[in-house]
Specification:
Largest sheet: none
Distance between the termini: 19 Å
Mean pLDDT: 89
Strand content: under 5%
Low-confidence stretches: none
Structural class: mainly alpha
Number of strands: 0
Radius of gyration: 17 Å
Order of helices and strands: HHHH
Length: about 150
């Protein structure tokens, strides 16, 4: 089946956003761990489940960065589960930001950006699945066999 230019654009946009989120989460997680919070005061964690930035750094690195990396790798490999993992990674990013803003009881422009990139991933997955009527229901180049 021939894919439309719009479908191809949506697929490559999803891949770019996934790679961006993966690199950001991995770099952010490592930086938080290496600097014990990137200079943020530990008082930001008061009232939350963490007393240091170790667990948040590990969660950002392993869970958020790992799911984003897995999504990107599966998209590159054109695996059937790529769209599922892209949606999981997008929702994971949004949940991470939502919980983070609740714990620190604040909001920065970076959190808005990363919440938006997570939402964009989910929107692109829905579009590629044909939920949007203007986009053909195809998974561009994603094979159904391993």
């Amino acid at each position: 089946m021939r894919t439309s230019r719009l479908t191809t654009t949506a697929f490559w946009s999803l891949l770019v956003v996934s790679v961006f989120n993966a690199l950001s989460a991995i770099a952010g997680g490592i930086a938080i761990l290496a600097t014990d919070g990137l200079g943020m005061p530990s008082s930001m964690l008061a009232g939350g489940p963490f007393t240091t930035f170790t667990w948040p750094g590990l969660i950002l690195l392993v869970v958020v960065g790992g799911s984003q990396t897995l999504a990107a790798v599966l998209l590159i490999a054109r695996r059937p589960s790529a769209l599922l993992w892209s949606a999981v990674a997008g929702f994971g990013m949004m949940i991470w930001i939502f919980v983070e803003t609740g714990i620190i009881r604040g909001l920065s422009w970076l959190q808005v950006v990363y919440f938006a990139t997570g939402a964009l991933q989910v929107i692109l997955v829905l579009a590629l699945l044909g939920v949007a009527g203007w986009l053909p229901r195809v998974s561009p180049g994603i094979r159904s066999t391993p």
